[in-house]
Predict the structure.
Amino acid sequence: MPAIAYFGPSGTFTEMALEQLLTENPSFGDDGDVERVSATSPGRVIDLVRRGEVAYGCVPIESSVEGSVPATLDALIKGSRVQIFAETVLDIAFTLATRGPMASSDITTIAAYPVASAQVRETLERDYPRAQLVTSGSNSAAAQDVVEGRADAAITTPLSVRLYGLHALATGVADSDEANTRFVLVGRPGPVPARTGRDRTSVTLDLPNVPGSLMAAMYEFATRGIDLTRIESRPRREPGGFFFNLDVVGHLDDPPIAEALGALHRRATAMHFLGSWPSARPNGTPPPSHQQSDQWLESIRQGLDR
């Protein structure tokens, strides 16, 4: 039975995302049961993958409300290489849970994971203006805080409500109706998943600290008609420098992507290939096809009149 780690404990959105990933990609679970191993942080999940203690790890990487997850981005390149093989997107709406039925006006403390509280801040200020927020270590831990009497209510997941036997005082709690989080499945390096035509490729660049180096890197994408969907700088471990994490539309087997990555490898001080994998939702414009120009070149090689 393969083991897959996830950012836990049980009852978090990441556990829900793992279940969805395995439903959408049953081969990663060997088409059967898997051992689910909870870990206390995205970095710990990825560390278990690096050490070979689990086959894969499921971690959040990007929120439509809060942006990228820094703990995941940093952990992906701190250590031996790991690779992303799949992703899924979970629509995010929280449940306000209590130990039992109670009046909203009686709620004075609400437990919430900081990432969760940021996504429901406006709703809480409007509907529970007297309530004080209590910081919890995860969405599941917020539910446990209610069970153990440390808070009157919790901003948590529907799964945690069921696991802890809580009362759902309000469901679908979110400041945005379109809030979602993207989760990825990370493993040790291996062959990239087959090209599907709706793919995402991610790399991290450590560029020379000279004027114009980032612009020169971006030029490699722009001149090839590649859709760059995300660029984010992160500080290096040593002070005074940054590396850049990039997502582009396309697959390593798309000629424009392969050409651009090869050119970037020559320019960069260091380059980490994080993977090419099918995108869970439409994510931009695919790179242009080289088929016609390749056919023209081949006809020239063969001396045909074209």
Observations:
- The radius of gyration is 22 Å.
- The chain has a mean pLDDT of 92.
